[in-house]
Amino acid sequence: MQVIIPTPLQYEQIVGRQKRVDGEHYRLMTYVVQQPVTDGLLLYNTLTCSMVLLQPDEAADLTAQRELIDRWFLVPQENDDQKLCHQIRQMAALLKPAAKAITGYTILTTTGCNARCFYCFEKGTKPVTMTSETASKVVRYIVAHRGSETVHISWFGGEPLVNAKAIDQICTELSQQGVPFRSGMISNGYLFDADKVQRAKDLWQLQLVQITLDGTAQTYNRVKDYVYRNVNAFERVLQNIGLLIAAGIRVKTRLNVGKHNIGEMAELVQLLHQRFGADERLSVYSAGLLDEEHNAELFARRMQLEQQIAAYGFARKLYDLPKDIRLDCCMADDDGSRVVIAPDGHLGKCHHYLDREFFGHIDSEERNEAILRKFKERRADIEACVTCFYYPQCIRLVMCHTDTICTSVKQQEHLYNMREAMKYEYERYLKNENHYPDSINV
Questions:
Q1: How far apart are CA 390 and CA 407, in angstroms?
Q2: Across the strands, what pairs with 27?
Q3: Tens-digit pLDDT profile for residues 298-326
Q4: How does DSSP classify residue 127?
Q5: Which uninterrupted H or E stretch holds 420?
């Protein structure tokens, strides 16, 4: 057996190695995911966050591998895996140091947008644009709360480029203050041009842009319904994707899939390959629209699309294998190291709440603790949680609009992403790129 990803130190400190009991009957822990590879069988544990490779002869009789007992891949037949997960989370939460700085910001430069997508969750939100005065206050707030860490900014909207001036100003003033920062962006990509791409690289320190495509030209232009007329928006966005990757900025292309466009998505992927080849700076993935993401038939067709994406060689490092015990769902319920800044300076915990549920303002150090607690409230476990491999990494929040129900389709998607990530990590390991110095043979 070969350890590809060692057990994290925190887990080792909490539970250590499992003691073997002679005569005990062992089984795979509920949280173990299997992925066959050329060299044998990969096992990844979503609770211990470790991964091992078994040779074919070892994989033929899993319960005979005593090291799998030591490392919690095998547990006694009557073990309560869910109870163990709860206990480990509680201990890890007690040991977790309090956040001393805010290092992650989602900054909305505007809630206005140049597109009018029919599925937008922001539909009906009053357009508000960040002023120059507020942009300067944002910088002061970041400087006052960052500690000595590098700041990570996600530009969001609406369409953040509708108010690119605010991005310019914030980045310029951060640089003048000597604040190290990196940024990413969620954008429809339309308003980029050669000048903005250069500023994005040099001034905004832009590392990644996520751009959504809703189909081939005719469907895309109809769905996006831009405020501009007599333009081929689809072609313009493709040109801008080319400008971004040529500048060394990674582009994550999200294909929004529904019944209205699934039939043409294979053609779109082929077009992207013809246009950009398998450029490592371009990743492509599909996602179901919110009202259709649990449709089993659509999911099956999406998985066929994902196979085509992989066959074309598009980089798909879109999901990271968890490397530690998960204690929070996202920025909404984390310990305070990440916040949302609205265009008017209000502070929030989730970008899905653009005009309400704020816990503070950049003008004040006061915090509404009741709002913060509200974003931490978790949904009760359901029956499916008992047998779900993903349970240690799944934290469902009452306030989350995008994670309200759990279905077999959602579980299948988690499993697909997990297995793809396992293969990716193993490929890195084979190339000596794993950065796990204590990977060992046992």
A1: 12
A2: 75
A3: 889 999 999 899 888 886 556 788 888 88
A4: P
A5: helix 408-430
The whole-angstrom separation of Cα 200 and Cα 182 is: 11
Residue 309 neighbours by CB distance under 10 Å: 22
Which parts of the chain have pLDDT scores under 50? Answer: 436-442
Task: Measure CA of the first residue to CA of the last residue in the chain; give whole Å.
Answer: 5
Closest CA to 375 of 400, 340, 393, 352: 400
Q: What is the pLDDT of residues 233-245, one digit of tens each?
A: 999 999 999 999 9
β-bridge mates for residue 42, sequence order: 35, 53
Phi-psi region of 300 (alpha: psi -120 to 50; beta: other; left: phi over 0): alpha
Mean pLDDT across the chain: 91
Two tokens, residue 168:
């310019």
Residue with tokens 């609205």: 342
Count of C-beta atoms within a 10 Å radius of residue 229 = 5
Q: What is the dihedral angle through the alpha carbons of 107, 111, 114, 116, rounded to the nearest 10 degrees?
A: 120
> Whats the size of the chain, residue-wise?
442
pLDDT tens-digit readout, 201-213: 999 999 999 999 9
HSE, CB side, 13 Å, CA atoms: give it for residue 143. Answer: 15
pTM: 0.89
Query: What one-character DSSP code corresponds to residue 431?
Result: T
Neighbours of 205 (CB within 10 A): 19
| Gyration radius (Cα) of the chain, Å | 23
Please report the pLDDT score of residue 437 as a whole number.
40
Helices (H), 179-264: 194-202, 217-224, 233-246
Q: Which domains does the chain have, with CATH numbers?
A: 2-96+407-430 (no CATH), 104-311 (3.20.20.70)
Can you tell me the distance from the alpha carbon of 254 to that of 287, in angstroms, rounded to the nearest whole number? Answer: 7
Distance CA 407, CA 396 (A): 13
The C-alpha atoms of residue 334 and residue 23 are separated, in whole angstroms, by: 43
d(CA 290, CA 309): 22
